[in-house]
Amino acid sequence: MRGLMMGRFQPFHLGHLDLAKQILDECDELIIAITSSQFNYLEKDPFTAGERIEMIHNSLKESSLDLTRCFVVSIENQFNVATWASYLKSTLPHFDKVYSGNDYVSMLLADSGIEVVIPKFLDRTQFNATRIRSMIISDENWKDFVPNAVYDLLTKINAKNRLAVISISDTNPTKH
Ligand SMILES: Nc1ncnc2c1ncn2[C@@H]1O[C@H](COP(=O)(O)OP(=O)(O)OP(=O)(O)O)[C@@H](O)[C@H]1O
Ligand SMILES: NC(=O)c1ccc[n+]([C@@H]2O[C@H](COP(=O)(O)O)[C@@H](O)[C@H]2O)c1
């Protein structure tokens, strides 16, 4: 049995790690699919697909999760929403069920005959990537909301500067 979780993971946080553990408890194998892989250096999508793969791989490794049971892959956002589920089936390794608490995603997948499981969430008011991005910019203590491996990577690439520049840049396409 293989379970799939998807998200932009901008950045990957402890709520995401908790979900990965839930799936590994319930399934033999886990696929983590990084969505919107073609977007980066944007306010809601600051990190590249490659950086997000590293965040996730390093986080699973430092938690001593069995990497031989995990796939970490990236997929692009699709213009045609109605064919999104077929795209997932053709692009990802085979999956048996998808873990998602999003009604919109559940509807799209259920309409295509894909089983959806609603996961338990770690307090979403605290563990959400939007909040963590804003804490990084304003220099609040965000270290406790992400795996150490993510903290190390974001510090190494100077995420604070990237987020700050993106949020004020006149050339940022999301500002127009
Ligand atoms: N606190 C959490 N606990 C458990 N799972 C979570 C939590 N937050 C998000 N997830 C799961 O992770 C997946 C990816 O979420 P996503 O990357 O959109 O995270 P997010 O923190 O909500 O991001 P953003 O705030 O940037 O929209 C979602 O399918 C959701 O089910
Ligand atoms: N058209 C598309 O490519 C499309 C459609 C629906 C969801 N998604 C993405 O799939 C992911 C699903 O995660 P959630 O279960 O948290 O909503 C999100 O990152 C969302 O952006 C992409």
Automatic annotation (TrEMBL):
InterPro entries with a match to the protein in the record: Cyt_trans-like, NMN_Atrans_arc, Rossmann-like_a/b/a_fold
Main location per the UniProt record: cytoplasm
Domain spans labelled Cytidyltransferase-like: 5-133
Record GO cellular component, one term: cytoplasm
Family, per entry: Belongs to the archaeal NMN adenylyltransferase family.
The species this protein was found in: Nitrosopumilus adriaticus
Biological process according to GO: NAD+ biosynthetic process
GO terms assigned for molecular function: ATP binding; nicotinamide-nucleotide adenylyltransferase activity
Broad enzyme group: transferase
Source superkingdom: Archaea
EC number annotated for this UniProt entry: 2.7.7.1
Pathway: Cofactor biosynthesis; NAD(+) biosynthesis; NAD(+) from nicotinamide D-ribonucleotide: step 1/1
Compartments it resides in: Cytoplasm
Keywords of the record: ATP-binding, Cytoplasm, NAD, Nucleotide-binding, Nucleotidyltransferase, Pyridine nucleotide biosynthesis, Transferase
Name of the protein this chain belongs to: Nicotinamide-nucleotide adenylyltransferase
Entry annotated with the keyword Cytoplasm: yes
NCBIfam families, alphabetized: cyt_tran_rel, PRK01153.1
SUPFAM superfamilies per UniProt: Nucleotidylyl transferase
Reaction(s) catalysed by this chain's protein: beta-nicotinamide D-ribonucleotide + ATP + H(+) = diphosphate + NAD(+)
